[in-house]
Design the sequence.
């Protein structure tokens, strides 16, 4: 993981690695190998995040004309209740 800390463009990678216990349902899982050789465009990610910063889905609900199914599995939670 140390090689990611040297590059300021890897802040997303650093954050995702710190979330690994929650994302992988394993408090001891080291996901750093999965991020080797992955390039992150931090300016692009910031732009995408800013587009949804003030998005309120309630404003769009009245325009939805079809049924919606939202399905979550036992282990699909970012903040797992099991940890």
Sequence:
């Amino acid at each position: 993981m140390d090689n990611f800390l040297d590059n300021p463009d890897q802040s997303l990678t650093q954050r995702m690695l710190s979330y690994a216990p929650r994302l992988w349902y394993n408090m001891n899982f080291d996901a750093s190998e999965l991020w080797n050789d992955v390039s992150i465009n931090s300016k692009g990610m910031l732009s995408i995040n800013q587009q949804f910063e003030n998005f309120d889905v309630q404003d769009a609900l009245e325009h939805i004309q079809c049924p919606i199914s939202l399905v979550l599995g036992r282990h699909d939670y970012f903040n797992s209740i099991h940890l």
Notes: The chain has a mean pLDDT of 75. The helical segments are 2-5, 11-18, 20-23, 42-51, 58-61. The first helix runs from residue 2 to 5.
